[in-house]
Amino acid sequence: MVELIDSHCHLYDTRGASLDDVLAAARAAGVVQMVNVGCDAATTRAAIDIAAAHDGVYATVGLHPHEAVHGIESILPFLDDPVAMAQVIAIGEAGFDLYYEHSPREAQAAVFAAQIQLAHERGLPLVIHTRDAWADTFDVLDAEGVPERTIFHCFTGGPDEARACLDRGAYLSVSGIVTFKTATDLQAAARLCPADRLLVETDSPYLAPVPHRGRANQPAFVHHVAQFVADLRDEPLEAFAAATVAATRAAFPALAVGQR
Questions:
Q1: Per-residue pLDDT reduced to its tens digit, 78-107
Q2: N or C: which end of the chain has fewer CB within 10 A?
Q3: What's the CA gap between 119 and 204, in Å, rounded?
């Protein structure tokens, strides 16, 4: 069985399933590490607590663009808590979502810029969420400076957007969307991305890949994402999986240090 890392999931939302069962299924599927991503103060706290209780699970501190109205102050206490920060390996998810625009664009921009600066100050990777907002995302990112390790999570762009991200030194993380028949631009981007910049994720409980589309997603299903992309790139799964593990540990150095 190949080993994989789920570079982006939300383990505090298992849609009613037992967390222990979800983690056991992930390990049975070869998932050796999971990045459990915070979206606001409550979910960041939950992500940290889960990471503290389970080997192979790591947390982020983040304020999702949907939650930007709460202000960056809502997550700053975690950054001053050494116990919490012992579990934290990145800032985010942060960015823009202009599809829903649950928070005003101005608030999204301010909170995104603040989280970019936190990534710089703390020397931590930055996890970016961008939806219908490439120009705004690049404008703020370029103005604040791209952190050394920046991950575009649930990348849904095509080749042009992929090249724009890669030119900025970023990593692309693809989710189950890549398995959808209509995702031809994303599939083209996944083909062109260098192996050392390409990660796989579930974004669970959302976006379950084929053949589980329509069900609640879980980290175990990252295997389907990896298999699909390996086939897309005409690469053996074993080689592709090893490359994604190496790339994910390069993007999130704490994963390489603490392979627990």
A1: 999 999 999 999 999 999 999 888 899 999
A2: N
A3: 24
